[in-house]
Amino acid sequence: MIVVGLDTATPSTVAGVLLADGRVAEARDDPADGGRGAHAAKLLVLAEQALADAGITWDDVDRLAVGVGPGGFTGLRIGIATARALAQGRGLPLVPVSSLAALAAGVAPAAAAPLVAAVIDARRGEVFAAVHRGGETVAGPAALAPADLADRLLALEEPVQAVGDGAVRFREELEGAGVAVPADGSSVHRIGAGPLCRLGAVGEPAEREALLPDYRREPDAKPPTR
Questions:
Q1: Contact, 8 vs 79, CB < 8 A?
Q2: Is the entire prediction scored with pTM above 0.85?
Q3: Is 138 helix (H, G, I), strand (E, B) or coil?
Q4: pLDDT at 112
Q5: pLDDT, the chain, mean
């Protein structure tokens, strides 16, 4: 099975192709720390680049996977709208993938820390987080204050490794609870095309119009009330 995966839940714009032999071609745009993503300008360009790097065309693709969050509101809207349009135009099954699950799946199992907390910076002093053991979700996803997440991870009474831009930003709070956080520049803090596509390969396709973003909280900007 050949899968194209797209994710725009974080400032990074990620596109990739999983080939039938297990090889992955990835194309991505990672803004500087604190930068906003250029999802609208980059996503389709990166998808085409990944296909070219894989040596295939859209005609060879069997299904499309898209990260549904939780994550940034604008990014998720762009990613999911793009994926819907591509799925419709190309006649492809569309599979929703948790962006937190994809982040956690990029971490190699470690006996020293069997639990992986995937932590995405939600801004406004919060994070989106979920805890995974292997391919299973242990807790979350939820929008939490970093201190609340630290308390919840401490209460698990098992070694935890935290990854993601939220883990990097709130390293002090997490390490204070005994959570291991890899070095800031480690690739485990970024959603990778490989885990995203592999989850998409085994996931259940959804109806295009029923596939919705996992926001986990109210939008930052709301219409005025009267």
A1: yes
A2: yes
A3: strand
A4: 66
A5: 93
